[in-house]
Design brief:
- The structure is a homodimer.
- Chain A has a single domain, classed as UDP-N-acetylmuramoyl-L-alanine:D-glutamate ligase (3-Layer(aba) Sandwich), CATH 3.40.1190.20.
- In chain A, the strands form two sheets. The first copy, chain A, has a nine-stranded mixed sheet. In chain A, strands 3-2-6-7 form a four-stranded mixed sheet.
- Chain A has helices at about 30-40, 55-65, 110-115, 125-135, 150-155, 155-165, 175-180, 185-195, 235-245, 255-270, 285-300; strands at about 5-10, 10-20, 20-30, 45-50, 70-75, 80-85, 95-100, 120, 140-145, 170, 200-205, 210-215, 215-220.
- Chain A has about 300 residues and is α/β, with parallel strands linked by helices.
- The interface of A and B includes residues 190, 208, 263 and 300 of A.
């Protein structure tokens, strides 16, 4: 039986335009990418909210990946819908609209079962809500947390309270610099360690990811892709795969486990990037995954 | 006895301002960094020109590293002097002045001995001059070549003629995109392979380096530094170490050798970054180098 992992965050629709075309009202949201990716390693349950417009077709990828949807609240109204476009380099997403809809009043409430969960992935949501989740979980073994520039700018003090209580913090380069005011990523990571987090994971986009911890620092390359279809959800996939993998381990709190988790995050994110939405990510066979891990580890042998 | 390597390029003075301070008229130039780095693996001789203001003190780092300076022409006038400044992130160097001086009329002339050299590193100079060197060398085993955006913009056709004749091409991300008109680095690399080069090495600055070749692709992380003192010469160090290492091998034309050369380039460049000029690079002990290689390979074990 797989170990459990709780994923709290957004389940949404995305409308995306990029150099490869357009995707209208496709399944998105940080909790979707994270839970689907985590499902390859652990048993995810989610806490999220959708509107009455969220159909069984929209649920299909979760059902396929056997994700526990009992915590997916259905509220009268429309599902969160984000619209954005990317330039050809995928470096910057320009938001065209953010219709929060039912997500506006999202208050995560954990079931009794979820309160006993051993691993928690707090996807990118308001740090106040992240704190409220941490109050509800009894004795978590692993707590991982993602965030974004919006919360760093608007709720830094609350975010720092969250960081104090988490084992693993995910953020990208820009966010690490914005939150710490420090340019060098190792120095920025060390500042965050001083705030109470154990492992700082800096997501480097097409350059992989970096770890800063008291046990060691490391930078691991990406799984290289010649064709990038859409980068939406890559970071959430990374966090979900990373944390799901750790959830599956007896002993997670060591450098080897963390570096393997980084590799898994890097490699799993490469699948997300190969399609719009979770199309590629939700349909992977063990063979697909195994092949890519072999290619990745072969790349690092010399 | 070490295998020989010919390094052709600039020996210059640099005046640099950055967040860590200022360095006035210190030893610089692509051929300086490349030959000093190569000297840890092979026996470099250089072809370059300096002015009568280039003293024995300026020669000291070369002498210390036992570099053959018989091809260092001394011409009446002043040595090439570049002045520039960096912002705190070291991403962009702003040129303040470029006094070419005696370098303006540099025409590389190889001695009879140098014409028989087995490994050639063409540092970043006018592609016309790179072609003239290639005409002079008889039967090189390995030819590696660096370039820069200035030559890509002004002498693209000549540069493509050079590329056709080289085994290894070094360029950074921006240069790869500028030269090929292709954003994705693997696709850009493949375009360059189609022009006749065997191994395309894309230098990624603080993110390490990428290889594109018919034998395989790879991305290797950097040696991580918490403090960056000055990035001037890091790319030249990378190329010199990379090529010097290959020169030392019996069999260089395979994926393992090339990936090891990338590692050596990445790690040796980290030393250059720790001081102004070649101060740190020219004074390394075998222990310094060994320690850093161990840290690097340990980082990639998990």
């Amino acid at each position: 039986m797989k170990n459990d992992i709780l994923v709290v965050g957004s389940v949404a629709f995305d409308t995306i335009e990029n150099a490869n075309g357009c995707a209208k009202r496709v399944l998105g949201g940080a909790a979707s990418y994270a839970s689907i990716c985590a499902s390859y390693y652990a048993q995810p349950s989610i806490v999220a909210v959708v509107g009455t417009d969220f159909t069984s077709t929209d649920r299909a990828p979760f059902v396929k990946r056997k994700i526990d949807l009992r915590g997916l609240e259905v509220k009268k109204g429309k599902t969160f819908h984000w619209g954005g476009s990317y330039d050809k380099d995928f470096n910057t997403a320009v938001t065209k609209f953010t219709d929060l809809n039912v997500f506006k009043d999202f208050k995560p409430v954990l079931s009794k079962e979820q309160q006993k969960v051993k691993t928690v992935f707090l996807a990118n949501i308001d740090p106040e809500l992240q704190l409220s989740v941490l109050k509800q979980v009894k004795h978590p073994r692993i707590v991982a947390c993602d965030t974004m520039n919006f919360w760093i700018s608007s709720k830094k003090a609350t975010l720092l309270k969250v960081i104090k209580q988490v084992d693993i913090l995910f953020l990208n380069e820009t966010e690490a610099r914005l939150l710490t005011g420090i340019y060098n990523l190792v120095a920025a990571g060390k500042w965050l360690l001083s705030k109470g987090v154990k492992y700082v994971i800096i997501k480097l986009g097409s350059n992989g990811s970096m770890l800063v911890s008291k046990k060691g620092i490391a930078q691991l390359p990406p799984y290289i892709l010649e064709h990038v279809h859409d980068t939406t959800g890559a970071g959430d996939t990374f966090g979900g795969g990373f944390t799901g993998y750790l959830a599956s381990l007896k002993s997670w709190d060591n450098l080897t486990a963390i570096k393997r988790a980084m590799m898994i995050g890097n490699v799993m994110a490469s699948f997300t990037i190969e399609s719009f939405s979770v199309k590629r990510l939700a349909g992977l066979s063990p063979k697909d995954i195994k092949k890519r891990f072999k290619e990745y580890t072969d790349m690092l042998k010399f």
